[in-house]
Amino acid sequence: MEDILNFWRPRLQSILRVVAAFLFIQHGTQKMFGFPAPQRAEFELFSLMGAAGTLEVVGGLLILIGLFTRPVAFLLSGEMAFAYFIVHAPQNFWPLLNGGELAVLWCFLFLFFSAAGAGPWSLDHYLAKKRRTINR
């Protein structure tokens, strides 16, 4: 059983990264384009929502393909911590009551990817493998 778990652990890490990025991108496309759900306010690029939407789309795409995963995930983790403390925490201490559960979850999920990396099914892994081959 341990062999099966060891085989699948890194692959499931890659799958988790792809699914999380796909879901995260939708928050950015909602802010920027009103898709897949209508946006709450007019999109202004040079605003907090504009910066958030841009980070969510561009950063989410990089996480999705697994390119520059660690630094991008660290940046997105910080964005979500910032979002929690600026938007949600002032309303109430408890994330369930202030609507901040997703911000907290995204924050720690991206913090995990900043430490663990993208997994084997990623451009980061492919490029590292290619570099090792060239340097031999």
Automatic annotation (TrEMBL):
Keywords: Cell membrane, Membrane, Transmembrane, Transmembrane helix. It holds the Pfam family DoxX. Belongs to the DoxX family. This is DoxX family protein. InterPro entries: DoxX, DoxX-like_oxidoreductase. The chain crosses the membrane at residues 15-33, 45-65, 72-91, 103-123. It is a multi-pass membrane protein. It comes from the Bacteria. It is found in: Cell membrane. It comes from Oceanisphaera marina.
